[in-house]
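--- STAGE predict ---
source: upstream dedup step, 1 unique chain passed
mode: sequence only
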Amino acid sequence: MSHRLFSYGTLQLEQVQLDRFGRRLDGSPDALPGHLMTVLRITDPGVIASSGTDHHPLVLPSDDPEDLVEGSVYTVTDEELAAADDYEVDDYARREVVLASGTRAWVYLASSAV
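--- STAGE serialize ---
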């Protein structure tokens, strides 16, 4: 089965994709309305090694419907979605959203906000 996965952060990086999925994903630009981005300090050494940084973007719902987070939407397999779940630390929770294009996709939001 295939899934749509929206990324606004390190899952867009080629090295992270190769490490987690064994391939480079082919994505399309899209955006998540009604959300804003902040930064989270990551402490997981495997995630830091893959992404090359300990500062990762984190998306929160916004009270302003004009707020928009840009990113890319990818088509992934069940196994790749599970690999993405494994990559994301506990500060993130996967939720289904509707993107600006009308596409339904999974996204990792702040776990405190869901």
